């Protein structure tokens, strides 16, 4: 099962790390506890829209950009899950992803390489 809260947390963590910022800095700027932000990043807590807005403001990232990245990762995870279940890859998931190649290593773990994006390892649950 693909959990949206985990994908969202992964994207938030990457955004923060790209900026070279600590959890403490972002939690202070977003006015959210460090522990709670950590749980959101680890996919253990569902963030409300208000909290996401505060975190996005603290990271100086538009929520639409955050959601677009989460959406792209969700599409890739769904593709990997489908490929692992059926042993074949359907056509492109979205036009912005272009052609996608999938190689299995082993069947329950799939590596997806999309053009103009970093390779993403997705584990099908």
SSE layout and pairing:
Blueprint: H1 4-18, H2 23-30, H3 34-41, H4 49-59, H5 63-86, E1 101-104, E2 109-113, E3 120-123
Antiparallel strand pairs: 1-2, 2-3
Describe this structure in words.
There is one protein chain. The protein has 125 residues and is mainly alpha-helical. The chain has 5 helices and 3 strands, in the order αααααβββ. It has helices at residues 4-18, 23-30, 34-41, 49-59, 63-86, and strands spanning 101-104, 109-113, 120-123. It has a 3-stranded antiparallel beta sheet with strand order 1-2-3, with helices on one face. A hairpin with a 6-residue loop joins β2 and β3. The longest helix has 24 residues, at 63-86. Residues 94-107 have low confidence and may be disordered.
Roughly how many Å is the radius of gyration? 16 Å
Total of helices: 5
Runs in which pLDDT lies below 50 for 5 or more consecutive residues are 94-107
Average the pLDDT over all residues and give the rounded result.
Answer: 81
Q: How much strand?
A: 5-15%
> Count the strands?
3
- The helix-strand sequence is HHHHHEEE
| 3D shape | elongated
| Strand arrangement in the largest pleated sheet | 1-2-3
Kindly name the structural category.
Answer: mainly alpha
* Main beta-sheet annotation: 3 strands, antiparallel
Oligomeric status of the shown chains? single chain
- Helix proportion range: 40-55%
C-alpha end-to-end distance: 5 Å
């Amino acid at each position: 099962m693909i959990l949206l809260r985990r994908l969202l947390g992964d994207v938030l963590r990457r955004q923060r790390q790209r900026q070279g910022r600590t959890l403490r800095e972002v939690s202070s700027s977003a006015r959210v506890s460090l522990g709670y932000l950590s749980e959101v990043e680890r996919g253990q807590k569902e963030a409300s829209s208000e909290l996401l807005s505060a975190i996005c403001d603290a990271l100086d990232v538009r929520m639409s950009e955050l959601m677009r990245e989460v959406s792209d990762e969700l599409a890739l995870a769904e593709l990997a899950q489908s490929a692992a279940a059926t042993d074949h890859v359907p056509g492109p998931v979205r036009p912005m992803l272009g052609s996608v190649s999938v190689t299995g290593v082993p069947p329950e773990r799939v590596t997806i390489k999309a053009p103009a994006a970093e390779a993403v390892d997705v584990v099908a649950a």
